[in-house]
Amino acid sequence: MNHSDRVIETVNSPHSAVYDSISASWNRSYKKHGLDPARQPEQFVVTETELASRIETAERLLQVTSPKMDHLFQLVGSSGCGVFLTDQDGIVIDQRCRDADLHTFTEWGLLQGANWSEEYEGTNGVGTCLVEDRKVIIHRDQHFFPKNIGMSCIDAPIYGANGETIGVIDVSSARLDQTDNLNALISKVTAETAMQIEVAHFMDVFSGFRIALVGGSQAEQNMLLAINSDDVIIGATRAARRYFQWNLQGPLQPMAATDIFSRDDSLKGFEKGEKTAIIKALTRTNGNVSETAKALGIGRATLYRRMKRLGLDRNRSISRELSR
Q1: Chain segment 264-286, per-residue pLDDT in tens
Q2: Strands of the 92-96 sheet, one edge to the other
Q3: Which CATH superfamily is domain 39-204 in?
């Protein structure tokens, strides 16, 4: 049975959409987009004018992406892989490949301006990654069209400053000896690259604001919050949004940073704000109570009473208070 017949047999099965993600993608390609695996599709490439417009729109992303793509290509390029960046619509806007492989990638249609959405190319790394909003590996005959089954495509989504998907980083290869283990290794570094791009883009968009890291492990380096001078959270990465169970994309409802980071739930409202203000003032004076009282415009005795009421131990070092 040839590849086209296998695809059609799979999509005509009444249960194919629930078998696995590849079958579900084949279903979308065939039934939703009306693609026929037996017919050679025409490569859809946007005009030079539209490509230039898309590149201009993505200028900020491209600036932070370029060094990350260079590094990824240094890791995988010698094995015959190409590295490609698409925008949120699956249009290739940047690429890295060896001169010796350029003709092959161009023949496949992996070139700037090419549309690799599922709508045009069926199941493929870029398009399926965008639809399913997760990292994917589409290995050889998992592609929808027979013309693409010589490729292995490894992809990860790139999230923007508001949590939205703004592009895909793709590593494609035509190596006949491309193994599952090699794909898994490339997938790991591709996903790490996507995360690095997300972090760099977030910090670029929110440059001038305080950036707070929510997670502490290496795997949580993309859990970031942007906080303005009023201690109001105005931005969060996708991972941070997921952690706090906020909307995964779109503008944030402004919220006080102290409400997120405070671990003292015994104080509410003004008391919590008062405690925060006193701790900040003590920090600025190195724990000098007299200077703190003067800065707050109250008497030393009054400050001691308020510290006692709020559970601030006058004998506890300020560093210990801040670490609570």
Answers
A1: 455 455 666 677 778 878 878 88
A2: 92-96, 82-87, 165-173, 152-159, 136-139
A3: GAF domain (3.30.450.40)
